[in-house]
């Protein structure tokens, strides 16, 4: 029962990120990067590891002035 709930949560999160990246009303072009929905999905799936990595990611993004570096610090350990 628990694995089906986790699977449904993963599939719903994947659909959310895909819908953000390739919106159907723009004919699957011109969407976002999917960073915000993926952070939300990770927060729902594994809140403690994500919260522990937010601090170093913010410091890295501020220090390098690149949000891409911050997301790399956030996603790489997961």
Shape: flat
* Major β-sheet annotation: none
What is the tally of beta strands? 0
Helix fraction by DSSP (H/I, runs of at least 4): over 70%
Explain this structure to me?
This protein has four helices and no strands. The chain is mostly helical and 78 residues long. Helix 1 runs antiparallel to helix 2. It is flat, with a radius of gyration of 14 Å.
Defining key terms:
78 residues; mainly alpha; 4 helices; 74% helix
Q: What's the short story on this structure?
A:
The chain is mainly α. Helices cover 74% and strands 0% of the residues. It is flat.
Helices and strands in order:
Blueprint: H1 2-21, H2 35-45, H3 47-64, H4 67-75
Helix pairs in contact: 1-2, 2-3, 3-4
